[in-house]
Amino acid sequence: MGWGSQPRCAETTELFVLLSSDKNATGLTMLPKRGIQAPADADRLRAVLDRRLQRSSVRGAA
């Protein structure tokens, strides 16, 4: 799957979420933070997502 299929992302306290922009279908990929072994790993993933995707807000996210 290419970056273009899910051009937006959001972050919650427990997840990174990649979101589609298709108005006819909802697509998402959830990346649980519990799989991250060190805080620096989360920072690196956040940096990659910020370079490639547009940030979206999530209701109820801390």
Work out the helicity level.
10-25%
Q: End-to-end distance, in Å? A: 29 Å
* Total DSSP helices: 1
Low-confidence stretches: none
Shape: globular
Strand content: 25-35%
Q: What's the structural domain tally?
A: 1
Order of helices and strands: EEEHE
- Strand runs, count: 4
Characterise the protein shown here.
By secondary structure, the protein is of the alpha+beta class. It has one domain (3-55). Helices cover 23% and strands 26% of the residues. The chain is built from one helix and four strands. It has one helix at residues 39-52, and strands at residues 8-11, 15-19, 28-32, 54-55. A hairpin with an 8-residue loop joins strand 2 (15-19) and strand 3. The longest helix has 14 residues, at 39-52.
SSE layout and pairings?
Layout: E1 8-11, E2 15-19, E3 28-32, H1 39-52, E4 54-55
Parallel strand pairs: 1-4
Antiparallel strand pairs: 1-2, 2-3
List keywords for this structure.
single chain; 62 residues; 4 strands; 4-stranded mixed beta sheet; alpha+beta
Structure summary:
The chain has about 60 residues and is an alpha+beta fold. Helices cover about 25% and strands about 25% of the residues.
